[in-house]
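Hi F.,

I've been meaning to write this up properly since the lab meeting, where we talked about keeping a consistent format for the predictions we share between groups. The idea is simple: the sequence comes first, exactly as it goes in, then the structure tokens exactly as they come out, then a line or two of notes. No screenshots and no reformatting. I'm using this chain as the first example so we have something concrete to point to.
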Amino acid sequence: MSSVVAQSLHVFGLRAHVANNIFFFDEQTVMFPSGNHCVKYNVDQKWQKFIPGSDKSQGMLALSISPNRRYLAISETVQEKPVITIYELSSIPCRKRKVLSNFDFPVQKFISMAFSPDSKYLLAQTSAPESNLVYWLWGKQKVMAIIRTDIQNNPIYQVSFNPQDNTQVCVTGNGIFKLLRFTEGTLKQTNFQRGEPQNYLAHAWVSEDRIIVGTDTGKLFLFESGDQRWETSIMVKEATSGSKSLDIIQESESLIEFPPASSPVPSYEQILTASNYSQLSMPQVFTIAAYSKGFACSAGPGRVLLFEKIEEKDFYRESREIRIPVDPQSNDPSQSDKQDILCMCFSPSEETLVASTSKNQLYSITMSLTEISKCAFSNGGHLFAAVNGNVIHIFTTTSLENISNLKGHTGKVRSVVWNADDSKLISGGTDGAVYEWNLSSGKRETECVLKSCSYNCVAISPDSKIIFAVGSDQTLKEIADSSVLREMSAYEVVYTAIVISHSGRMMFVGTSIGTIRAMKYPLPLQKEFNEYQAHAGPVTKMLLTFDDQFLLTAADDGCLFTWKVFDKDGRGIKREREVGFAGEVLVTKTDMEEKAQIMLELKTRVEELKMENEYQLRLKDMNYTEKIKELTDKFVQEMESLKTKNQVLKTEKDKQDVSHREHIEDLLDKQSRELQDLESSNNQKLLLEYEKYQELQLKSQRMQEEYEKQLRDNDETKSQALEELTEFYEAKLQEKTTLLEEAQEDVRQQLREFEETKKQIEEDEDREIQDIKTKYEKKLRDEKESNLRLKGETGIMRKKFSSLQKDIEERTNDIDVLKGEQVKLQGVIKSLEKDIQGHKREIQERDETIQDKEKRIYDMKKKNQELEKFKFVLDYKIKELKKQIEPRENEIKVMKEQIQEMEAELEHFHKQNTQLELNITELWQKLRATDQEMRRERQKERDLEALVKRFKTDLHNCVAFIQEPRLLKEKVRALFEKYVQRADMVEIAGLNTDLQQEYARQREHLEKSLTTVKKKVVKEKELHRTDYVRIMQENVSLIKEINELRRELKFTRSQVYDLESALKLTKKIRPQEAPEAVPSKESLSVSPTMRLNEQEETGRIIEMQRLEIQRLRDQIQEQDQVPGLHTLAGIRLPSLNSEMDFEVETR
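Output, unedited:
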């Protein structure tokens, strides 16, 4: 199987602990963090786009978007190192613009960020104990200024730029409100705090020099240029039952708006007088957002207040209160936000939701168990398993009866899973045990215990043979027959969840760092998987949909991701087997009565059609027998005509063979005589030429002696001149050698001086290099030692800090757990009392329903007996009809065998015709070859005659100069160069080169002509092949039509069968109305019509085959008239009975 690819599709959930975790990208799109992604969500069109976090990220800490909505800054911790990543939102998809990861100042994480108004600068606040405020020119990764904002390790919540000034910033925290200005490369504080310090949670700039600040005690402060100008307090009013009827509530689509208060700021006296009608509490102001008319601030859970500026004064008044509505989809909207859901699971039918809450509820039914941490429906949906500590309870879905309790784990059970047929349950726990339970006996069948591993999740293969388990030992285990077959490393992470597809070919695992890994199954031997960034916490649960198309993942960060599953080519995963449909159909009594009436009418129609079909079949059989006789006579006549034609072709071929042999023998005799004549004439000419050659050789010897005498005289004069020249040049050479020796001595002196200066320079440079090297090695050694010492100290401090932080977290968690248990126990007491009353009412109702069902079962048994009797009668009638059809089928088989024999004979004749045509073409080729050889020999003869004539004339011209030896010599030499080649000098008795060249040229011409003929033959074959392909395509289209008609026939037959089976039901339900009735003529008229269409189609196929045979016969005659061409060999006529085979088999 190809590798598996998962693509994030949708996500539910938001990370609440990320600073500045929601903002608008445009008018319809909001952005928020979810898992390890930043999500762009279009409110109108409901689509989501994902901006993934960095690889191996431990989660996002803070977000910030630039004022021009072009850049997004994300603060993360990657492998225990802080990183700020800046994305460009204008590109699609969003790409990383800058990554700020190398810092020359101490930092653990960045908890708040802000862009400047021109989006060029970035402000980032680090966490305690450093508490540094960093001012960046982020485009060049340059730190412009850095300052420590707090020295008492108080938390800092927010930093921001002045919306009109790049150089002014604001910082708020616990007891901290500072205005800073960037001047001369540093950040300097411009305000001084007066009065009692507050825990400032949030702030917002409402103008160039004004800031609204909110506290944890519900107070709002207005600061102008660092000085306090205005103060107000926020109260949460929970209206009593008497005052609710007086309020006018205006509901919008997603918000509930309350009318504004009569006064902008309630005084102390007003608060006291209103105490009789409301209960007051002081909310915390966690966030403030400014807009054109004023600002909005949070005022407790689910409540937002809008403040508008008073025109006459520089203060603000409360103009509107907005409340988030309760969840309308909740079972108890008033209590839905006061209970915790621990676990949820859908049944396979998706009609029932099991939810485990802090009040121990299963949907709308209160359960009697407490602390249910895991639950799982069986594949059939009739059972579900609930985990309580180390015990697994099995319940029925219909009656909620506890049918079994599985005990055996010594630690908490972390995961349970059902096998395919719901006969077994597999569980894994923190005690390192994986058990396989048999639900019929309630006992363990297999077990695999490994104390060193605490299992987080288990899964089972679709064939229920192999169990997969993941745990704290950073491995994935394959378990079978109580033993571990194989362990696959998780590569330095802990697997927390696992799921295998229904096809058993792919697997997904979740890790402790929030990533999802997709791998093939069987598991690869090497590190082969695709890893995706998903969540910001350990993955707790993973599920695949029934069709393996979507993957759902949930994690500790409170987010639910939906993934689309593909293969590596982008195709969706296909299921190997589809879910089967149920055999039962629910219908009403009136429908059954109408169906029974229709069945009676159809039965009468069926009997009428049977009689009509029998009569039509007899007529068709008679017609077909006559047609078959006519066809056989025609085929026999055609076979005889083809035989006579083949005989005529054989006789013609024999005659042509005899004539060709005689012609070739005459040519060979003539050629041998001509060769003898040529040899005799050439021998005489050669003798004459040899005599002339002897005379010329004597003359050349005399001339050579004269020339040798002249050469001797020339050598003597030459030797004297050489002696004189050598003496002159030797004197000059002596002078030049003396000058050269003097120049070489000067060069040697200069080389010695250069070597000495070079040696001195090299020694000086070596000494300087050695001194510098020793100096810097010493510095490097000192720096390494100090670096190692500092690393050790930082490691020790980090360990101490992490251990102290863990202790604090454990203590706070213990306190929270104890408080939650106290609340749960109080709720359990009330819920148990309600359970007792509810169960008593249910017992009474179920007793009544059981009695009604028993009565219905008795009535159904009686009806089944009557239907079985009626079924026996119809089966007998069907057998009789089958016996009547069998003789017709035997006759069709006999006719089909006859047609096959005729077709075999026809194919044999086609093969004979093709063989004869091949023989004729070979003879034509041989004839052409002999004609070409004859022409070539004649051309040679003419060339030789012309050559001899030219030689005679040239020789006659030479005889005219016999009295002048010198001219005669030149003419003879020219004659020699003209008619005698150098190859003839080596082998004078060989063949003439002109003849050899002419022979090669003729051979090359013949080869080219042969290739052209072959190409023509191939083209002719292609032409005939296209005709054959066209014929085959026409036959295919006809066969398709036949198959469609057959499918229609099969469908109508199935309808008849269904109607016959339905007749059984009607006779059982209404036996008094089912005497021998006559079928109606309308509903089952399809069957004879289809049968008639089949017979007409068979006749039409036979007629088409006859026309095809006639066309091919005409084509053979046309090709016989054209010499050198032959028809395409191997063409086979379409079978006459191929279209009838399927019909016989289906009958």
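Notes:
The chain has a mean pLDDT of 78.
Helices lie at 241-244, 268-273, 589-959, 965-979, 982-986, 993-1069, 1086-1121, 1138-1146.

If this format works for you, I'll send the rest the same way.

G.
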